TrEMBL record:
It is a multi-pass membrane protein. This is V-type proton ATPase subunit a. Belongs to the V-ATPase 116 kDa subunit family. The keyword Iron-sulfur does not apply. It comes from the Eukaryota. It comes from Deinandra increscens subsp. villosa. The chain crosses the membrane at residues 420-444, 465-482, 545-563, 575-598, 634-652, 754-775. Essential component of the vacuolar proton pump (V-ATPase), a multimeric enzyme that catalyzes the translocation of protons across the membranes. Required for assembly and activity of the V-ATPase. InterPro entries: V-ATPase_116kDa_su (IPR002490), V-type_ATPase_116kDa_su_euka (IPR026028).
Length: 818
């Protein structure tokens, strides 16, 4: 998008300032102007012809032409796939205009279609001759065998008749032998090939239709035969059907056609048969040579197309998108200029004006395009300029809802908070290193993978590679805090602060250990691992830490709502939404966080559950041993009263003030300021529609505020409880890791058997990768996603905007590939 040096520094906190602009373009430079704006990719065109159908628009013919060329290119792509040239990415060749390309594509398509038709005819003839040759060979063998058997049988019967002829010989046999050959019944026959899977049904139907008055002989063809009609390899049988009479012949022919049996002529004359086999073999050789030459010519033609396919395809897509954009423009009164309206970032004004000037010069236009900024009350689109690192985090936010124009963007904070909350649940620096190395591999090979089509899962992992590498880095950090490396603790930052009372360590599990050194400097002391108190200690630590993190992030969300109200100059939201929300949340859960920190600092044994419960049930009772500091009871009463006051503070004043504000704004509505005639005409419809949306329903506003108040009050409790998932998933991850280490790896290590040890290591690796590095990663990712979408963003984020979708050739190419 333009030259890198001309772009201002990236700001993710709020979307780019946008402006509605109008461009008046002379007809002679319209095409080139839209082309240059497409290269720039910073102008979102509005459809000024939304009332017209696609066929009624000015450039419908050109779009139809581009569509026809795109169809021809798709045909070429299919041919390239057949030739195995789909992966060819070269895009060289001389520049060519759209008209020249249209003629060239037509010629090439006609040439390829003719070559394909000829090849198909030749291939079909070749396959038919192959089948005919098989019929001649197989049926010839059958006839030869039958004639040999008949001759041998006749010779044997004649010898038998001469030797044993007497009065006892059968009369019929004697009559049969003396019958005139010319008076014997002649049998007709049909030969061909039938698919083997239909041969049984073929035989059965023949028998039933002719009532058994046919004789069928089949011979199996060992190799697959290419069917001339279907063009696919099929298992077939050669058959010969003998029949008597014209009626039987017609039935046999119809059954052959019904079963897709290919029939071929056959002669029982041995000499003619050998001559036919020789002729067929010669024709097969000639056809094979012709087909090979045709295939070589077809391959060279497809190769020539493949060399320039990318260039042609890009040109057609580019031209089609240009004409689609031109169809969104309207004509001025003189019908000599096109008028475009759309959104663009304020910083892009200079670049757009330079592109318009360049288009005027390059198209030799006498009149330049006019760029003017319009004033409107319409909500602009939201545009965040991201790079390959921040885009994935922004996509996480956009999946929930696109930010309203210039409201505070959660994506800026998500870059840090999302991987950190993930790491709280995933904390293990061994697993984090594995995740880091896997993602680093994707990042180092991103140039290669970005140009390839990956699978669905791989595509998703590659798209979020920078999110995953941040998650892995934070997981290594939290793993150091939890002191877990595949659930094994290490004394990385010094020796443990605790030691046994005596060298034998007999009292370690009963009385406990004593502190002999300074507190372990960073993270959890490794001595906790494997002790009876490990689980209660880590439970308490992680549960309290989850509450602190949750309250901190919810406070951040409420603070961002203040910055939104300040930015949009909405004092009502500051005084009657931000302040009571801060008071309510921190009177209860901010106070709980304070108690947790005080308890950690003082080492008190106070029961925080008891303190919080009786703060509501019996606020005036003495705290006794649960008192953490002087004046705690009075502070609790004050905080409870503030929380109770904050609820009506949120509910009642805001609807009343909004109603009052609306009445003041529209008190002088009957008196409109004088405007020029042109401005009146232009803004008449906009003014009426705007006025129609300004009706104020006090009951609706009151109900909406009531729902919002109830949602916040109940959400403060449920959202805080929801952050306990950080504790639960962290504990589950730690325990699963410990189980795999102790019950698989250590158990296998205990056997003095190499085979069992190898099996144990393999099972441990697969369990770690499959469960902890894949399933647990996905689980922690989804829970972190929910904490951001629900617990964090609902405090300030409306997410009812719409994305800035500029006309850009780069975006058009990506959409076409998808």
């Amino acid at each position: 998008m333009g030259e890198g040096g001309s772009l201002p520094t990236m700001d993710l906190m709020r979307s780019e300032p946008m402006q509605l602009a109008r461009i008046i373009i002379p007809m002679e430079s319209a095409h080139r102007t839209i082309s240059y704006l497409g290269d720039l990719g910073l102008f979102q065109f509005k459809d000024l012809n939304s009332g017209k159908s696609p066929f009624q628009r000015t450039f419908a013919t050109q779009i139809k032409r581009c569509g026809e060329m795109a169809r021809k290119l798709r045909f070429f792509k299919v041919q390239m796939m057949k030739a195995g040239l789909l992966t060819l990415r070269s895009a060289y060749g001389s520049e060519i205009s759209l008209d020249e390309l249209e003629v060239k594509l037509g010629e090439l398509e006609a040439e390829l279609i003719e070559m394909n038709t000829n090849t198909e005819k030749l291939q079909r003839a070749y396959n038919e001759l192959l089948e005919y040759k098989l019929v001649l060979q197989k049926a010839g063998d059958f006839f030869h065998h039958a004639q040999s058997s008949a001759t041998a049988q006749q010779r044997e019967s004649e010898e038998h008749h001469l030797v044993e002829g007497s009065m006892d010989s059968p009369l019929l046999l004697e009559q049969e032998m003396t019958t005139d050959i010319s008076k014997q019944v002649k049998l007709g026959y049909v030969s061909g090939l039938v698919p083997r899977d239909k041969s049984m049904a073929f035989e059965r139907i023949l028998f039933r239709t002719t009532r058994g008055n046919v004789f069928l002989k089949q011979n199996v063809v060992e190799e697959h035969v290419v069917d001339p009609v279907q063009g696919e390899k099929v298992e077939k049988n050669v058959f010969v059907v003998f029949y008597s009479g014209e009626r039987a012949k017609n039935k046999v022919l119809k059954i052959c056609d019904a079963f897709g049996a290919n029939r071929y002529p056959f002669t029982d004359d041995i000499g003619k048969r050998y001559q036919m086999i020789t002729e067929v073999s010669g024709k097969l050789s000639e056809l094979k040579t012709t087909i090979d030459v045709g295939t070589l010519h077809w391959s060279s033609a497809v190769q020539a197309i493949a060399n320039q396919f990318e260039q042609w395809n890009n040109l057609v897509k580019k031209e089609k998108s240009i004409y689609h954009t031109l169809n969104a423009l309207s004509f001025d009164v003189t019908k000599k200029c096109l008028v475009a309206e759309g959104w663009c970032p304020v910083f892009a004004t200079t670049q757009i004006q330079k592109a318009l000037q360049r288009a005027t010069v390059d198209s030799n236009s006498q009149v330049g395009a006019i760029f003017e900024v319009l004033h409107t009350k319409e909500s602009p689109p939201t545009y965040f300029r991201t790079n390959k690192f921040t885009s994935a985090f922004q996509e996480i936010v956009d999946a929930y809802g696109v930010a309203k124009y210039q409201e505070a963007n959660p994506g800026l904070f998500t870059i840090v908070t999302f991987p950190f909350l993930f790491a709280v649940m995933f904390g293990d620096w061994g697993h984090g290193i594995c995740l880091f190395l896997a993602t680093l591999f994707l990042i180092l090979r991103e140039k290669k993978y970005s140009s390839q089509k990956l699978g669905d899962i791989m595509e998703m992992a590659f798209g979020g590679r920078y999110v995953i590498i941040m998650m892995s880095i934070f997981s290594i950090y939290t793993g150091f805090i939890y002191n877990e490396f595949f659930s094994v603790p290490f004394e990385l930052f010094g020796r443990s602060a605790y030691d046994c009372r005596d060298p034998s360590c007999r009292d370690a599990t009963t009385i406990g250990m004593i502190k002999v050194r300074e507190t372990y400097p960073f993270g959890v002391d490794p001595i906790w691992h494997g002790t009876r108190s490990e689980l209660p200690f880590l439970n308490s630590l992680k549960m309290k830490m989850s509450i602190l993190l949750g309250v901190a992030q919810m406070n951040l969300g409420i603070v961002l709502s203040y910055f939104n109200a300040k930015f949009f100059q909405n004092d009502i939201n500051i005084w009657y939404q931000f302040i009571p929300q801060m008071i309510f949340l921190n009177s209860l859960f901010g106070y709980l966080s304070l108690l947790i920190i005080v308890k950690w600092c003082t080492g008190s044994q106070a029961d925080l559950y008891h303190v919080m419960i009786y703060m509501f049930l019996s606020p005036t009772d003495d705290l006794g041993e649960n008192q953490l500091f002087w004046g705690q009871k009075y502070l609790q009463i004050l905080l409870l009263l503030l929380a109770l006051v904050a609820v009506p503070w949120m509910l009642i004043p805001k609807p009343i003030l909004l109603k009052k504000q609306h009445e003041e704004r529209h008190r002088g509505q009957a008196y409109a300021p004088l405007q020029s005639l042109d401005e009146n005409i232009d803004s008449d419809s906009e003014y009426k529609s705007h006025d129609g949306h300004e009706e104020f329903e006090f009951s609706e506003v009151l109900v909406h505020q009531l729902i919002h108040t109830i949602e916040f009050v109940l959400g403060s409790v449920s959202n805080t409880a929801s952050y306990l998932r950080l504790w639960a998933l962290s504990l589950a991850h730690s325990e699963l890791s410990s189980v795999f280490y102790e019950k698989v790896l250590l158990l296998a290590w205990g056997f003095d058997n190499v085979v069992i040890l190898v099996i144990g290591i393999i099972v441990f690796i697969f369990a770690t990768v499959g469960v902890l590095l894949v399933m647990e990663t996905l689980s922690a990712f989804l829970h972190a996603l929910r904490l951001h979408w629900v617990e964090f963003q609902n405090k300030f984020y409306e997410g009812d905007g719409y994305k800035f979708s500029p006309f850009s050739f780069a975006l058009v190419s990506e959409e076409e590939e998808d």
